[in-house]
Write a structure and sequence with these properties.
By secondary structure, the protein is mainly alpha-helical. The chain is built from 26 helices and two strands. InterPro entries: GPCR-associated_LMBR1, LMBR1-like_membr_prot.
């Protein structure tokens, strides 16, 4: 099994990163360079998280072998460090290997140090140099590659110049103090420490939010009433954002241009309308004006697409939650969907996740499962907060994670060690990464699922992951007392810690900031628990869902009314379509206009194209939605039905008769 576990992890993590990128990004439409940079940054960060438990178990095994080779005596730190860095010339005797059982996931000497150096320095190159450049490149409105590169270099000149100025100042300072005698390795350590300090500063802020919000969200999500009220709130906000995005796109399209330059890059569905509405101008536009317009068009179209998809998703969630509330009070143990989706007739729905099983999950099991999970996550959060405040104490050992790892180490239970490390670090990553996925900085950084995240936000998330993951892993090693720079224990270092260098070069950071700053997570957890941040954002005009707020209640009522109007429009569309179809059934039975019906059915450009005879009457109502959208031109109807374009919504026949 030597090295097999590492190979499996490398492959599995790649597909995990690819799946997340496919869920948030658009693999077919977005630029290849953007997708490659984001995928590589996510992959390297996830790789650190999944391989670190293997590094811990391998280090514990090497510590056992070294302790059996040399009886417990004071051993120099240099000797243990040399062992960590992979001195393959040292082979333990047979007695040591008999006492110390080799872990199933043992990684051969020399593999991890090389792997960690490649992963760490590649991720740092991405986050500090390449991804900022690619962000400016992706947002540029230039029409050629050379123009985009030029724009990116100009925008990042100050960014790169600041790094160069800091580096030159550091070299001058070191040269002015020859007593320091800093080597190249020491300079690398200083750079790594600076990057980790920046990451730890942001890490504690995100961790303090996630440790409280994740358990609380699962506890509150156990109630359908809470979820439905929050969905109404989001729907009301999204309606406003959707209207603003449509208005912004219309403003961008209503630009008077010289006719040859009218084909500014925009979606095909808008080009025809733009050709009808835009007035020609005899004034030739400048190149910079076209570049600026191109940039605005890209941003407006992207935002318009995001709001449409999010609007549709919120409607689906609201309808599902309303159906759950109705089914919960129904005596029939059968989950009934008001608008069955396209997945309702899949083999999974028919044979595995049947309506009866769905009713038991939604109405009986879901609440208890979510609350049990919330309690477990709450206990894990409490353990993290306690350990963050006490991990510097080694005699006695107060960190709960360190206690558990040391108990498993005495029994040489490597599977428990790896599982405990993986669960702990995975929970820390979920708390931090989920906060990154929830952050919304206006419309500049916003991770939107269903392939709607723009290139700038994807690359910004890659930058954040690359800056947060290394200090998060170092913090975890400190929690389990396997970072001697913090715990000051005389033991072998992990291969991951060895590439970070000796933090004793900057003792005021290793003995001060790295130990006492994580204690701030306790205050941040208290602030999150009492919704301090949400209340501040609410006062600033960024509406947040707060149960005891009057504005929240108004938005919930507004969202409920919007959902009701959409429901009525969809049901009306089904009724109109069924009446239309019944009319053609009469013609069919009397032998009249059969050819006309066939022509309509075969016309692929017709809004009812593709309708064929089927035993599923309700599946045809989706075409009624599109038909009604084409027939009705009222502004309110268009606002509530335009989300149906390009997707199927099924209406049960029995509810519309």
């Amino acid at each position: 099994m030597s090295g097999a576990a590492l190979a499996v992890v490398v492959v599995v993590v790649f597909f995990l990163a690819l799946y997340l990128l496919q869920h948030y990004g658009d693999l077919r439409k977005q630029q290849r360079m953007v997708l490659f940079g984001t995928l590589l940054s996510w992959y390297l960060c996830f790789l650190i998280v999944f391989i670190l438990p293997l590094d811990v178990s391998t280090t514990i095994y090497r510590q056992c072998v070294l302790d059996n080779v040399n009886p417990p005596t004071p051993v120099s730190q240099a000797r243990r460090t040399n062992w960590t860095e992979g001195s393959s010339s040292l082979h333990p005797p047979v007695s040591a290997t008999e006492v110390c059982e080799e872990p199933w996931s043992y990684i051969p000497d020399g593999v991890l140090p090389v792997l960690w150096r490649v992963v760490y320095w590649t991720s740092q190159f991405l986050t500090w140099l390449l991804l900022p450049f690619m962000q400016s490149y992706a947002r540029s409105g230039a029409f050629s590659m050379v123009g985009k590169i030029k724009t990116a270099l100009i925008e990042n000149a100050v960014y790169y110049g600041t790094y160069l100025l800091i580096f030159i100042s550091l070299l001058i300072y070191v040269a002015a103090h020859p007593q320091w005698k800093l080597t190249w390795a020491d300079l690398q350590t200083i750079g790594i420490t600076a990057a980790n300090t920046w990451g730890l500063f942001l890490l504690v802020l995100l961790l303090g939010y996630g440790l409280v919000e994740i358990p609380r969200s699962y506890w509150l999500s156990s109630s359908h009433g809470y979820l439905l009220a929050k969905t109404y709130f989001k729907t009301a906000k999204m309606a406003t954002e959707k209207a603003a995005a449509e208005e912004n796109l219309a403003d961008v399209m209503e630009v008077r241009l010289y006719k040859p330059f009218r084909a500014v890059k925009c979606p095909p569905e808008y080009q025809e309308e733009m050709g009808r509405n835009v007035e020609s101008s005899s004034v030739l536009p400048t190149k910079s004006g076209l570049v600026g317009l191109h940039k605005k068009v890209i941003s407006a179209v992207q935002r318009h697409g995001q709001t449409r998809v999010q609007w549709s998703v919120l409607l689906d969630q609201a309808f599902h939650l309303e159906d759950a509330a109705k089914s919960q009070s129904s005596p029939v143990r059968h989950f009934v969907h008001s608008f069955p989706s396209a997945h309702s007739h899949s083999w999974i729905r028919r044979f595995i996740y049947t309506p009866t099983l769905e009713w038991y999950w939604e109405c009986v099991l879901r609440q208890g499962f979510y609350r049990l999970l919330a309690v477990l996550l709450c206990l894990l959060s409490a353990a993290v907060v306690w350990s963050e405040c006490t991990f510097f104490s080694t005699h006695p050992v107060l960190s709960l994670f360190a206690v558990f790892i040391q108990l498993a180490e005495k029994q040489y239970n490597y599977i428990c060690i790896e599982m405990a490390c993986f669960i702990s670090i995975f929970f820390l990553c979920v708390c931090v990464y989920s906060t990154v996925f929830r952050i919304r900085v206006f419309n500049y950084f916003y991770l939107v699922p269903h392939h709607q995240t723009d290139a700038y936000s994807l690359q910004c998330s890659g930058m954040l992951f690359c800056r947060l993951t290394p200090p998060l892993c170092l913090n975890f090693l400190g929690l389990i007392h396997m970072d001697s720079a913090i715990s000051h224990q005389d033991r072998i270092q992990t291969s991951y810690t060895s590439i970070m260098g000796s933090m004793r070069v900057l003792s005021f950071i290793s003995d001060g900031f790295y130990i006492y700053y994580p204690m701030l997570v306790l205050l941040l957890c208290l602030a999150t628990f009492y919704n301090f941040g949400s209340r501040c954002l609410n006062l600033l005009g960024f509406h947040q869902y707060i149960t005891d707020d009057d504005l929240t209640s108004d938005l919930v009522d507004e969202g409920r009314e919007l959902i009701r109007r959409v429901f009525m429009c969809i049901c009306l569309s089904c009724f109109v379509f069924q009446a239309w179809r019944e009319q053609y059934r009469v013609h069919e039975t009397t032998g009249r206009s059969r050819a006309g019906y066939t022509d309509l059915g075969d016309n692929q450009n017709s809004p009812v194209a593709g309708i064929k005879k089927s035993g599923r009457e309700e599946n045809s109502c989706n075409y009624g939605v599109r038909l009604l959208f084409l027939l009705l031109t009222a502004t309110e109807t268009e606002m509530t039905l335009d989300f149906q374009q390009g997707r199927a919504v099924d209406c049960p026949v029995q509810e519309t008769k």
